[in-house]
Amino acid sequence: MPVATGSDSLEMNNSNHIPTEPSLVRREVLVKNANGLHLLPCSLIARTVKEFDGTVKLFRGSQSANAKSIMDVIQLGAVCGTELVIEVEGHGASELMDRLEQLFADEFMTDR
Amino acid sequence: MLVKRGIAVSPGVASAPALVLGRDLLQFSRKSIRPDAVDREIGRFRQAVSDTCAEIATHADEASARLGDKYGAIFQAHMELAQDPLLLAEVEQLIVKQLWSPELAVQTVLQKQARTLEALDNPYLKERAVDLNDLERGLLRHLSGKDTNQSLVLTEPVIILAHNLTPSQTARLDPKFVKAFATEVGGPTSHTAILAGALEIPAVVGLGSFLHQVSGGEVVIVDGDEGNVIIAPDEAALKASEKSARSQKSKDLRLKKLSEKDCYTADNVRIAVYGNIEFPHEALHCRERGAEGIGLYRTEFLYMNREDEPSEEDHYNAYLEVVQTFPDRPVVIRTLDLGADKVPGMMESVFSDFTNPELGLRSIRVSLHDKERFKKQLRAILRAAVHGDIRVMFPLISSLSELREAKSVLRDVAEDLLEEQITHRADIPVGMMVEVPSAALMASEFAKEVSFFSIGTNDLIQYTLAADRSDPAVARYYNSADPAILRTIKMVAEAAAKAKIGVTICGQMCSDPRFVPLFLGLGIERLSVTPQAIPEIKDLIRHLTTRKAWEIAVQASEMDLAREIDQFLLGEVKKMLATGDEEE
Questions:
Q1: CA nearest to B119 within chain A
Q2: Which chain A residues are closer than 8 Å to B85 by Cβ?
């Protein structure tokens, strides 16, 4: 799977004339929390995407993980400073993407 | 008697008979299933998953209610893990395709995943393998149909010894009967360690293999302050631990008596006794025990047991809590003393794995290496300083240029705050730890540039005598009573007196009553000790005259063997306390 290099969202919409929301959204995020994606952050990701009726993948380079699986995401070994690409596909993708991006930005609200 | 050294993760000392928890209590015999039983076995597995989730939810609620939401979150994460779709699919695949029993499939998949985590580079992730262990045990227990919940039913005090305790086992320990626990594996950032601290039971982890040397039932002492576990202790060790237990019992009475009064020697010389703290809430313990301020606030603990870097506000709020507990008393904040034995998970990248961390990048060197982190802390200190008598202290200073560099960062920070028009106090007293022999040798020069010294005996001893304080093999070389240590302290005290600056002693050494008369005799008028020791130390000072202290110091400095000095000081303090008891 190719990795998006742009810093902003790469929103793909296969039917340009219909003003529906895009079904596939891809965005780059940075792991900012000091201990990287370990159990607690991964569980927050899993909880966020659990009810989503579509697929959510995290890419680290060419390695990908199913965001619904804690074990899969942990094994990306994403330490602090790792750049990841999130890819959300399905109905309500943009809205979910915003929530995921917020989680990363808030550093998973760890230890508050 | 067998003494084991591990990692102290929860303070306190306790002794009680040992209860050894088996390494694996869960046995199952069936390894494969018949093809026509697949649906039933899948159903059984799913039922076990949902039962396990229900149980974890109870743990989450219990932990949140008993210990706080932060701890509940650990079990919330376990819950997500138990519902991990890939894990579940992998297990079901083995049941359907390989005709494995759910038990075997669960064990295989979860142990494989645990090994994967253990193989990761990041030590923080490695420790999460225990969380998978917890899940595996939960699933196997529910599959076995024996929904016993395996709560330990205890009727008398015990000390739990185990290869490992999972977070859920730890959270369910009843502090009424479980006096302490000790495990062979585990690290300081494991969830188990964090929960032990929250439960306030002494705990030591990472002891290495020792369970085969314990049969169960023998008395064990767990020293959660020092990280020691003593199995079948001899009379002397038992007495020492009983003494600390007894002094805990009688403390309420003594606390009341001592808490209001400042401390004077029998001949009316004021001696200030401060408390050492790691966490802001301990300031209250200090005040309740009669501390006259905080002589050493070890701020690096703000970095322990958490996953992200503390923000300026985190620092500020912590300092505010301490200074509000002691609004009109000195509060000495020591800047980060990270490194060597204290490396938080988030900062592992900073510390390369050199073989000699005690002589490497640690303490003030880390702060000067990464000035942004240092400035964040200093900003918070200057901001909190408007609320009381806050003083800042730099640890591990080894040269004048290093001290000047640290002071210049402090000035920069004050200028920044002024420019940003943020309320702060710029003129707080600046002090330094004297704990490197070079600083002791240059004490007269340093004394011209700081407002106070604080002698950190732990590091001073280890650097002066070249003996690692955490290495049992060289324990006999690490000797507090060594004449070289006495001379060094004397030199620093004299330099401080000449420059008319204050000098405090804040290492473990001054929580030990035998050294107190010696320090007073050397002219030291401020001691900073662990909160528990405050009443005892104050009591001792009240029975002491400065004349007597001076005589003891003179006699001790004429001796040339550590053993001789040690015995002499011990004898003197015993005499003193014996006469003291008669008076009361």
A1: A75
A2: 66, 68-69
CB of A43 less than 8 A from some CB of B = yes
Least confident among B70-79, B101-110, B244-253, B360-369: B244-253
Contact by Cβ (8 Å): B167, B191: yes
Domain at B272-428: CATH code? 3.20.20.60
For the domain covering A22-109, report its CATH number: 3.30.1340.10
Burial class (CB in 10 A: 0-12, 13-18, 19+), B267: exposed
Tokens, residue B389 = 């008598």
CB nearest to A35's CB, from B76, B84, B345: B345
Q: What is the mean pLDDT of residues B275-298?
A: 88
List Cβ neighbours of A38 (8 Å cut-off, separation of 6 or more): A74, B122, B124, B125, B128, B307
User: Radius of gyration over alpha carbons of chain A, in Å?
Assistant: 14
Q: Which two tokens stand for residue B94?
A: 């083995």
Architecture of domain B2-24+150-240: 3-Layer(bba) Sandwich (3.50)
Taking the C-alpha atoms of residue A111 and residue A104, their distance in angstroms, rounded to an integer, is 14
Q: Please give the ipTM for the structure prediction.
A: 0.75
The model's pLDDT over B475-509, given as tens digits with 9 standing for 90+, comes to 778 888 999 999 999 999 999 999 999 999 997 78
Quick: pLDDT tens for A74-112: 888 888 888 999 999 998 899 999 999 999 988 887 643
Residues of A in contact with B77 (CB under 8 A): 39-40, 42-43, 70
Query: Beta-carbon neighbour count of residue B105 at 10 Å?
Result: 25
The 8-class DSSP code of residue B412 comes to H
